[in-house]
Amino acid sequence: MCKITYFVAATLDGFIASPDADHSMFLEGQDHGAWVLDTLPETLPTALRQRIPGLAERANRRFDTVLMGRGTYERGLRDGATSPYQHLRQYVVSAGLDSTPDRSVEVVAGDPLDFVRTLKKEDGLGIWLCGGGKAAATLRDEIDELIVKINPVVIGSGVPLFDSGYSPQHYEVVSGRVFDSGVTIMTYTRARP
């Protein structure tokens, strides 16, 4: 059974993007970038993978599927990325999006929980939820692991890590690492009753 990992960058105050879906406040590369390249290389967009020598040929280590919310996908579209993760199976969770400009990106318009439960039963590598806050809130009960790149910045408002109402859910710490850049990468698993 595959597990879902929500791997995402966040601010100290728990936002994954600015109110207009900008990510420029996050530190890119630096010392924590080497950790991402070594540990989760498939989470880099295909266009970036092709610019790093040898990375495009490297096999996926943890994930063969990516899920993203409509806002996350549309942010990539604004930058010209119609198929941002061509090296993964790509799904956009959205009740309001009918189609995408690229056939390799499939829209999940029905019940995303049923869809994800079916995906988790398939053989293969893991499933990466790359954002956004609404998709994470919808799929929260199916998220098995949470990896957060906590950036040393506070923005006050924006897209929250989980865009939902109050409903406590406990996680257990698996690991944590603080980098010289100030970025902390924390890994959690959902506590099971």
Topology, please?
Blueprint: E1 4-11, E2 15-17, H1 30-39, H2 46-49, E3 63-69, H3 70-78, E4 89-93, E5 105-108, H4 112-120, E6 126-129, H5 133-139, E7 143-151, E8 159-160, E9 171-178, E10 184-190
Parallel strand pairs: 1-6, 1-7, 3-4, 3-6, 4-5
Antiparallel strand pairs: 2-8, 7-10, 9-10
Count of beta strands? 10
Q: Write down the CATH class.
A: Alpha Beta
Strand count, sense and closure of the main sheet? 8 strands, mixed
Low-confidence stretches: none
Number of domains: 1
Order the strands across the largest sheet as they lie in space. Answer: 5-4-3-6-1-7-10-9
Query: Which term fits the overall shape?
Result: globular
What would the average pLDDT be, to the nearest integer? 94
What is the count of DSSP helices, taking H or I runs of 4+ residues? 5
- Please tell me the CATH architecture by its name: 3-Layer(aba) Sandwich
Q: Which class of secondary structure composition applies to the elements?
A: alpha/beta
Q: Would you tell me which CATH topology applies?
A: Dihydrofolate Reductase, subunit A
Rg over alpha carbons: 16 Å
In sequence order, what are the helices and strands, one letter per element? EEHHEHEEHEHEEEE
